Amino acid sequence: MFAGNEPEPVFTATSGLHGTTLVIRASGELDHYRTPVLREEMSRAWNTLRSPILILDLSALTFCDSSGIGELLQVRHHGLTEGVRVILTGVQGNLARRLTLAGLLPVFEVFPSVADALEAA
Predict the structure, then answer these.
(1) STAS domain location, by residue (predicted)?
(2) Rounded to the nearest 10 degrees, what angle do helices 66-82 and 35-48 cross at?
């Protein structure tokens, strides 16, 4: 699938606390093959979450397909079920276009940056 010495696209999801608020940072390409990485990080997050707010920082996301959007909708649904406010930050580029075209952008609580979300929370 990849020609020559091009590295295969990667996706990472890492968690960190900002005060008492858990921030999960997604980076790279979120597609069908990489949604399990986000799902695994979210599972750890849900098991350790001690705050009614969770921020998903997507500012370093370079691509997101429909599988990735489905995973974000699952995160939102789980948050609603558990009484956790899920905030997306850094929604831009491909993801912003896809969410807008699908009419899903208003479904999420979105802030430009983690700092903006923390200030509003």
Answers:
(1) 22-121
(2) 10
Give the C-alpha distances (Å, rounded to integers) separating 91 from 3, 47, 51, 60, 83: 30, 25, 22, 9, 23
- Cα 18 to chain centroid distance, Å, stands at 16
Please provide residue 66's backbone torsions phi and psi, each rounded to the nearest 5 degrees: -65, -30
Backbone angles phi, psi at 38, to 5 degrees: -65, -40
Would you tell me how many other CB atoms lie within 10 Å of the CB of residue 57?
A: 24
pTM of the predicted model, to two decimals?
0.91
d(CA 119, CA 3): 45
Per-residue pLDDT of the chain (121 residues; tens, 9 = 90+): 445 554 566 999 999 999 999 999 999 999 999 999 999 999 999 999 989 999 999 999 999 999 999 999 999 999 999 999 999 999 999 999 999 999 999 999 999 999 999 999 8
